[in-house]
Amino acid sequence: MLTALLIPLILALLFCCGNLVRAAVARRLVPGWETVAVGAVANFFDTLGIGSFAPTMAWFKFRGLVPDRIMPTTMLVGYTPPSIVQAMIFIVLLGVFIDPVLLVGCVIMLVAGALLGAPLVARTNVRVVQLAVAGALLCAASFYALANLHMMPGGGTASSLPPLLMVVAILANFGFGMLLNFGVGNYAPTLAMLSLMGMDPKLSFPIMAAGASIAGTAASAQCIRLGTTDVKIALGLALGGIPAVLAAAFIVKGLSVELLRWLVIVVVVYAAMVMLRAALARRGDGDEMLERAEAL
C-alpha cells in the first residue's frame, strides 16, 4: 500500500516542480532571497503543525509582495512541492495504519474541489477575494488560539470511521478543496473534523498532507495556465520550503510551539484587519500601491 501511495506523490512532485521551473525559465524569473526565506520559515513550522498559509499571507500583506487577488493561488503553487514532501514523510511513518478507503476517498474529493475552485479565483472580484483571505486568516488565528488553550478536540484512537461518518468526512473534503484556492488551508479543519469523529489525531496528518499534495498539484497547474500566480514568488517559496520540511521532520525533535503560535496569532489577526479594511473600502487592484505603502 505504501508503494501505491508514494509513487503518485513522487510523480506529482516531479510534475509540479517541472511545471513551475518551466514557467520561470520561460519568463527568465529568478526568485529573491526574501521569498526563499519566507518559504523556509513557513514550511519549517508547518511541518511542526503551526501552518504555512496564514503566516505567509500576513507577510505578503505587510510587505506588499503580491497583489491581493493572486495571493492565495501564489501560495498554493509555491507550497505544493513542500506539501508533497511532507505527505511522503507522514505516509511512510503513519500511512500503514489508516483505512485506505478513507484515505483515498478524502484525497479524491479534495482534488475534485481544488480543480473546480481554481477557475473561480480568476473570475472572482478582488473585493470578494480580499474578504475570503481575511476570513481565512481569522479562521487560522482561531484554530491557533484553540490549540494553545487546549480546546481543540482531543480525538480518539480509531484508525477508521463508521460508514456514515466516513461519507461525511469524504464529502467535506470537497469543500476543503475548493477553499484551498482562496488561501484556506485544509489542515486545521480536517484535523478538527476527524478528531471530533473519534479518529487518532496523528493519523489525520497523512490524509491532510496527501490530499493537499495531489489537490495542489492539479490546481497549481491550472493557476499557472490561467495567469493567476506570481511565478517568481511561488518559485522562491518552493525552493525554501522543501529543505525546511526535511529539516523539521528529521532534525527538530522538540520546540516550544505554543509561544510561536501566540506570536503568529498577533501577526495574522493584524493582517486580517488590514485585508478587511481594504475590502470594505472597496479598494481593488488599482489601489494596491497605496495598500503597500500603508502596510510598510
Defining key terms:
single chain; 296 residues; mainly alpha; globular
Overall morphology: globular
The major sheet is characterized as: none
Radius of gyration: 18 Å
Please estimate the helix content: over 70%
Q: Please state the structural category.
A: mainly alpha
The residue-averaged pLDDT reads: 78
Distance N terminus to C terminus? 50 Å
Q: What fraction strand?
A: under 5%
In short:
The chain is mainly α. Helix content is 76%, strand content 0%. Residues 284-296 have low confidence and may be disordered.
Itemize the secondary structure elements and their pairings.
Blueprint: H1 2-26, H2 33-47, H3 53-63, H4 71-94, H5 100-123, H6 126-148, H7 163-180, H8 187-196, H9 204-226, H10 231-250, H11 257-280, H12 288-295
Helix pairs in contact: 1-4, 1-9, 1-10, 2-10, 3-4, 3-6, 3-11, 4-9, 4-10, 5-7, 5-9, 6-11, 8-9
Task: Walk me through this protein's architecture.
The chain has about 300 residues and is mainly alpha-helical. Helix content is about 75%, strand content about 0%. The chain contains twelve helices and no strands. It is globular and about 45 Å long.
